Amino acid sequence: MPICKRDGFEKEGKNETFHDNDEVFCCYITKRIFRDYESYFRHVMVINSTVWQCEATGKENLTFEEAVKSERAARKKMEQFKQSLRAPVLLVVEHARQSAVNTLNLMVAKFLRKRYFIGEEVTVQAKKNTIYTVVGISLDKNLPEPGNGIYEDTDSLVYRLRPNKGDPSLEVELPFKQLRRSRTEFNMENLSMFIKSNVTRVEGLLRPKPEAYKQFVTDPGVSFSTIFIGKMPRYSPAKIKKPDAKDAKKQSTLNKYIVADEATAAKSKAKAKSDAKSLAEEMERVKREKEAKLIEMERQKAEKKAQLMERVESECNLLLQKTDDLERTDQKRLPRYRQIVTVLPERLLGDAFMVREFMHTYAGLLSGIEVFRQNLSFYEMTRALTTREIAGPLSDILLVLLGTIFDLQKEEEEESAVYYLTRSAQAHEPYNSMSQAIKSHIYAKRHFSFKVNELPLDALTISEVLRLHLLGSGAIVNERAERWRVMYRNGYSSREDPGLELRLHHPHILRSLKTHSIYQLKFRDIVHLIRCLMSQILTYSGTINLIEERMEQTAKAKQDLRALVVAENRRLATVEINRKKLTQTHHLESIAAEPEKKEAMAEKFNKSIAELHAQSDQHHRKHEQQMLKLHSQLFNFLVFLGMDRCYRKYYVLESMPGIFIEHSPDSLDTCMEQPPANKSQLEIRQQATLPKNRKDLRIYLLKLYGDGDTKTKRKAKQSQENKENQEHRLNGSAEPMELDSDSPEAPTQFELMMCSGDKKNCIVHDPKNGHRQIWSYIYKPEEIDELIRSLNPNGLRESELLQELTVLRSLIEQHVKTCPVELLTLENEAMRKKFLATMASETNRKYGEANFGLPNGTDLSEVMRLHLVDRLVQFESDIYTGDLGRLKVKDMEKWRKDLIGGNYDPQCKLQWGPGGKLEDEAANSSDNDSHDTHEGDDGALLGKFARMPYRDPGLYLAASADTESPPDSDDENGLPANAVSIPMEVHNMASALLQVEQAIGKRFLKEPYGMKKWDPKQEAQRLACESRLHQWEVSLMESTSFAQVFLHLNILHDCVQWRRSTNKSLCKVCRRGSDPEKMLLCDECNAGTHMFCLKPKLRSVPQGNWYCNDCVKSLGLNNGQNDKDKKQAAKKKRKFIVEEEVDEPTDEKDEDEDEEEEEEGDGDGDGDGEEEEEDEEDDNTDEDNDEEVADDKSMTSTRSSEKLNGRPRRQSRTGRTKEVETVTEEESESVEASDDSSLTADEETAEESDEEKVCQKCFYDGGEIRCVQCRLFFHLECVHLKRPPRTEYTCKMCKPMPKPRRRHSNMNGDDDDDEDEPQAKRSRSSRSSVRLSVDKSARQSNGNNNNNNNSANNNNHRRSGRRTNDNLPLNSAALYDLLEQIMKHKAAWPFLRPVLTSEVPDYHQIIKTPMDLARIKSKLNMGAYQLNEELLSDIQLVFRNCDLYNVEGNEIYDAGCQLERFVIERCKNMQLPFRPSDMNGEIETC
Question: Is the whole model's pTM more than 0.70, yes or no?
Answer without folding.
Answer: no
